[in-house]
Design goal:
about 400 residues; alpha/beta; three-stranded antiparallel β-sheet
C-alpha cells in the first residue's frame, strides 16, 4: 500500500534543535537535521567563527534559522538555556569543558529540560589524553589507521578532502546518536549526552577492514589489497586527454565484461593470478591512455563493467543519471547537493537558503515563545530575510516532561 506524502517538510517536522555555531562537522550535522525537517536554530556568535565562508553562500546553514547570542555576556547563557528548555536536541562542537565554563553544559541544560538530547561533536572525544588538544580532520583519520590505508605506497598518503573524518566519521555519527537518543527520550522521558568523536566514528567505519585483517585477507600496508588500489581492476586510470576513469570490476562476470570492452580478453585469467597483476595493470593503463575520457565513457555506457568517468565538482550535477534523480539542486543561485536520503511519505526539500547570522531573532522568539531572545523589541532583527525566504514554523511544540 502506498502512503500519500505529508504536507510537512520531512520526517523530523516538529523536532526542535539548538545548534551552537561552530565549523565543520557540527554545522553539517545541523544541516542534515534541518534537511530532514527539524526546526534548527543556530546560535551564532558576534563576529562569526573562524574559517567560515560568506554566510550567504554557506549551504551547511540552509533550512535553518539564526539568532546571535554572546555567551560571554551576562545574559548570554540564560538566553541559550531558555531555548534549550524548549528544545528536543542541542548540539555543540567545543573542546571538552568549554560549554560548561560558558554555563550551557549538559548539567545546566538538563536542569531546565531533563528530556533534552545533548549532542557533543569533537575530534578526540570528551575523555582521553588528547581530549584537550587541537586537531582537524587529517589529524583524526591519521591516528585511526584510515589515512594509512589510502594512496600509492611510494608516496605520502593523499588527503581525501575532509569528507572521511569531519562528515562521515563525525557528522553522520552525531546525527545517528542524536536520533537514537531522541527515540529513547520520547519513550522514557529521559534525555542524555551523546559523545560523538571523529576518531570513534572513523574507526567504526573500518570495521569490515579489521575483520579482513584478522582473517588474513588484508595486508596492513597501502596499495597491496583488493580495495586500496593494489588490485588492477579496482582503481583509477589516466586517459589520453588527462582525464581519469574509475574501475570497480571486482566480480568475475563484471571483470570479463571489463576486459572484453577494453579489448584485453586474452588477460581474463589474470584476474585470479596476483603474480600477473603487474602485467594486467600495465596493459589496462596503456589501453586507457589510447582514448579520451569521453570516448571511454561511451565505450562502457550501458555495460555492467563497473567503469565510470571521474568527474569534477562542477561536472557532477550535469551527469545524466544525477540530473535525472535530482541529486543536485539549485536554490538561490547556488548549485548544491539535494537532501538525502529520500522518503516516500515525508519528502524533504531545500526550503530556505543559508541562514544569515541573527536574521530570525524575532521569528524564533515568537515561534518558540522565548521573548527573552529579543533584547530590544523596538529594533528589527539584523540581516532580515525577505518574507518569501523565511522558514515556515516546523510544526507544533514537541512533547515536554
Amino acid at each position: 500500500m502506498t502512503t500519500a506524502p505529508t504536507a510537512g517538510h520531512g520526517p523530523l517536522t516538529g523536532v526542535r534543535v539548538v545548534e551552537l555555531a561552530g565549523i565543520g562537522p557540527g554545522p553539517f550535522a545541523g544541516m542534515l537535521l534541518a534537511d530532514l525537517g527539524a526546526d534548527v536554530v543556530r546560535v551564532d556568535r558576534p563576529g562569526g567563527v573562524s574559517l567560515a565562508i560568506d554566510p550567504a553562500l554557506d549551504v551547511t546553514n540552509r533550512n535553518k534559522r539564526s539568532v546571535i547570542v554572546d555567551l560571554k555576556a551576562p545574559d548570554g547563557p540564560a538566553r541559550v538555556l531558555d531555548l534549550a528548555s524548549r528544545a528536543d536536541v542541542l548540539i555543540e562542537g567545543n573542546r571538552p569543558g568549554v560549554a560548561e565554563r560558558l554555563g550551557v553544559g549538559p548539567a545546566d541544560c538538563h536542569a531546565r529540560n531533563p528530556r533534552l538530547v545533548y549532542g557533543r561533536m569533537t575530534g578526540w572525544g570528551q575523555q582521553g589524553p588528547l581530549a584537550q588538544r587541537a586537531g582537524h580532520d587529517v589529524s583524526y583519520i591519521a591516528l585511526t589507521g584510515a589515512l594509512g590505508m589510502i594512496g600509492d605506497p611510494g608516496q605520502p598518503p593523499p588527503v581525501p578532502a575532509n569528507l572521511l573524518g569531519d562528515y562521515a566519521g563525525g557528522s553522520l555519527y552525531l546525527v545517528v546518536g542524536v536520533l537514537a537518543a531522541l527515540h529513547h527520550a520520547r519513550e522514557s522521558g529521559v534525555g542524555q549526552v551523546v559523545d560523538a568523536a571523529i576518531v570513534d566514528g572513523v574507526a567504526h567505519l573500518s570495521a569490515m577492514i579489521h575483520g579482513m585483517l584478522a582473517a588474513g585477507g588484508w595486508q596492513d600496508r597501502r596499495g597491496a589489497n583488493l580495495l586500496d588500489g593494489g588490485c588492477p581492476y579496482y582503481g583509477t586510470y589516466e586517459t589520453a586527454d588527462g582525464g581519469h576513469m574509475a574501475v570497480g570490476a571486482l566480480e568475475p562476470q563484471f571483470y570479463d565484461e571489463f576486459v572484453g570492452l577494453l579489448g584485453l580478453s586474452d588477460l581474463s585469467d589474470a584476474r585470479r593470478d596476483w603474480t600477473r597483476w603487474g602485467e594486467l595493470r600495465e596493459a589496462v593503463a596503456a589501453r586507457f591512455r589510447a582514448r579520451t575520457r569521453d570516448e571511454w565513457t561511451a565505450v562502457f555506457d550501458g555495460s555492467d563493467a563497473c567503469v565510470s568517468p571521474v568527474l569534477s565538482l562542477r561536472e557532477a550535477p550535469h551527469h545524466p543519471h544525477l540530473a535525472a534523480r535530482g541529486t543536485f539542486t539549485d536554490h538561490g543561485g547556488i548549485t548544491q547537493p539535494a537532501p538525502a536520503p529520500r522518503f516516500s511519505a515525508t519528502p524533504t526539500a531545500v526550503r530556505t537558503g543559508p541562514a544569515l547570522p541573527g536574521a530570525h531573532t524575532h521569528e524564533i522568539a515568537r515561534d518558540w515563545d522565548a521573548p527573552g531572545l529579543v533584547t530590544d523589541p523596538e529594533q528589527p532583527s539584523p540581516n532580515t530575510v525577505s518574507p518569501g525566504d523565511r522558514p515556515r514554523p516546523a510544526g507544533p511544540p514537541s512533547r515536554k516532561a
